[in-house]
Every structure is written in C-alpha cells, then in structure tokens.
Amino acid sequence: MKKIITVVGARPQFVKASAVSRALKAFPELSEIIVHTGQHYDPNMSDVFFREMDIPRPAYNLEVHGAGHGAMTGRMLEKTEEVLVSEKPDLVMVYGDTNTTLAGALAARKLNIPVAHVEAGLRSFRMTMPEEVNRILTDRISDLLFCPTDQAMNNLNKEGYGHYPCQIHKTGDVMYDSALFFSELAEQTSTILKDLHLDKPFVLCTIHRQENTDNLQHLNSLIETLNEINRNIAVLLPLHPRTRKIIHQHGIQPEFQPIEPVGYLDMLRLLKSCSLVLTDSGGMQKEAYFFGKYCLTLREETEWTELVENGYNLLAGTQRETIISGFHQLLGKPFSDSHRLYGNGKAGSTIAGILSGFLTRG
Ligand code: UD1
C-alpha cells in the first residue's frame, strides 16, 4: 500500500482535491491522508465544502491562519514537516497556488518525498502576486506536474521544464470534474435562489484578490462600479472575509447588500442561474464558462488565457469605463461553446492513474 498525503487549506483547494480523492478510491493500492493547514477556517469557507463534497475528514488540522505571508507559510512549513516525518508518506499532493501549496510542497521536497502539483504551469507573469510566486516555486520543486490546459504545458515548455527531472502531464481541469459531478445535486438540493428571493435576473460577483482588496483606489472603484451596475441589474456579491474586513474598516458602503460566502452547491446554483459573472477569482472564471456564462475579470491579466482568446472572458481591470463597457458588451449575448477547453471531466481519474503508475512501478 502506498501512502499519499494531500495538503489543502484554502477554499478552492477543497473543490479541486475532492475530484482526485474520489478518483483515488478506485485504486486500492493507494491510501490518502488529508492535512488541512487551517488557512481558511470559517465554517462557510471550509467545513461546508468537506460536508457537501464528501471529502474525507482531514486527519490533521494545523490551524495556521491569519498571519503575514511569510509567517503563515513558515508556520505551515514547520507543522507540515512534523506530520510528514511521522507519517512517512510515499508522495505529497498539493493544489493550485496558495501559501498552503508552497508550504506543503517545500516541506515534502526538503524531506525528499516526491511532490505532485495539480494545476501546474499556470502563469500570470506578474511577480507582485503572491500566487505567482507560489506557483512558480511549487512547479520547480515538483516531481509530477499535472497541467490543466495547453497553455499551462506551453508555459512549462518555454521555461525549459523539458530539461528538469520531472514528469509533465496534461490532464484536463479537476474543477471541471467537480462542476459536472455536483451540478445535478446542486440543482436538487440548493435552496439559495428561494432563500435570497432571486426571482429576477442578477449578476454574480466575487472580489478577494490582494491586488484589489489592499488597494483602496481599486476597491472603491470596483464597489462604485458595482453600485452603478446594480441600478441596472441586481448585483449578488458573496463576500470573502478579507474583503468584508477591509470594506468595514474603510466605511465603504455598497448600495446592495453583500451576502456571506456561500458553499459549493449554492455557488453552482448561482452560477447556473446568473446572467453574467464579474470576478477576480481564478476558479470562478472557469466555472462561469462551465455553466455557459460570460465573465468579466476584474484584473489586468489572467492565467486562463484560453478563455480570453476564445471570447468567453473579458479582462476588465478595476476601472469603471472598462467594466461598464464590458458589461454592456456581454450582458444578454448568446453563449455557444464548442471548445471543451478543460478536458472531459475525468481529470481526477487521469491523475489517480498516473499516481498509481508512478508509485507502484516507479
Ligand atoms: C487565499 C489565496 C488565494 C486564493 C484564495 C481563495 C494565498 C496567498 N492566497 O487568499 O490565492 O484565491 O485564498 O479564497 O494563499 N479569513 C477569514 N476566514 C477564513 C479565511 C480567511 O477571516 O476562513 C481572513 C484571514 O484571516 C485573512 C484574510 O481573510 O485576514 C485573507 O485570508 P488568506 O488566506 O490570507 O488569503 P485569501 O485572500 O483567502
């Protein structure tokens, strides 16, 4: 039996890990232990995902959160190392680009435990983003790199990864697996539309990126622009705790009522029912596409460039003019998709199969 330790900690990682955890069950020679770093800890940012998505309970919760980037990553590194030393896994799996991702990968690398990185090869080419630093460093110390897209493969290729002693696989996107798998259940069980009395068209918005929340000019411009849009069509903004804190601190007053962060099934229901998505989240850009919605990205660049190239996503930045012009361009525009940009919904099984081969045949 080969032991895999999966290190997760932030909301999008629960969605991603659920697809691989489910697929790993088909491989009796592999066992999985989940370590939660504690980066996200509010019940509606963490517990609800484990419950709804039937993810195995974490065997360890390191309870690290709320510090600066260095302190947070450092504490996670130290505590993950302790777990790895006592559990002696055959491989460590990490997801995405958060501080949790880097800490998990680095702890394993320093102990010479093989590292597998799901969502490898993504780049924003903006080193001021903490996520860009995390993903570049994680890719470089990983043994197995699972790329969701051609663009991710190209990025690694350009960076000379062909010369490094690692395996690179294009697998499709595990978030697409999750969206397909849970879509029906969301339809049947989520009561969010009724609970929020959402019987009229609405746009779905999320804002949490540091470059938007920690820059008051950006944040003010975003909220004022959303106020303007809200006079046209209702804006629904499930608010990340980071954004909520900053809005409160600075007395910024949205004209609409932001709601608490929602669970995965409710989010899928909202994505299916909304008229347009406005977001600075990476995951939501893809989820909009999965459910046939256009997306205005509230950033200057995106890692998911294929969405922009194919016209599903407009990079709107944070300025009123570009957002309003994008809004008028995309609202009500018929959506058709023939591209299948993120695979066939079986990325988790592909990854589990490769892990089995790597661990049992070497
Ligand atoms: C992190 C990731 C980001 C990812 C996002 C998903 C890094 C560098 N960033 O950003 O890539 O897109 O998660 O949501 O890892 N907080 C709470 N309750 C929670 C979680 C956070 O109050 O459950 C507070 C924290 O204490 C902190 C702030 O929100 O003050 C930000 O949390 P943090 O994990 O540092 O970064 P995110 O913005 O969530």
Account of the protein in words:
The model has no long low-confidence stretch (mean pLDDT 97). This protein has 16 helices and twelve strands. Strands 3-2-1-4-5-6-7 form a seven-stranded parallel sheet, sandwiched between helices. A five-stranded parallel sheet has the order 9-8-10-11-12, with helices on both faces. It has helices spanning 11-24, 47-52, 69-87, 99-110, 130-140, 150-158, 174-189, 192-195, 210-213, 216-230, 241-249, 264-273, 282-290, 305-309, 320-330, 347-361; strands at residues 2-8, 30-36, 60-61, 91-95, 115-118, 144-147, 167-170, 202-206, 234-236, 276-279, 295-297, 313-315. The radius of gyration is 20 Å and the shape is globular. It is 47% helix and 14% strand. Helix 1 packs across helix 7, helix 3 (69-87) crosses helix 4 (99-110) and helix 4 packs parallel to helix 5. The two termini are 14 Å apart. Strand 5 (115-118), helix 5 (130-140) and strand 6 (144-147) form a beta-alpha-beta unit. By secondary structure, the chain is of the alpha/beta class. The site of uridine-diphosphate-N-acetylglucosamine has 19 residues, from helix 1, helix 5 and helix 11.
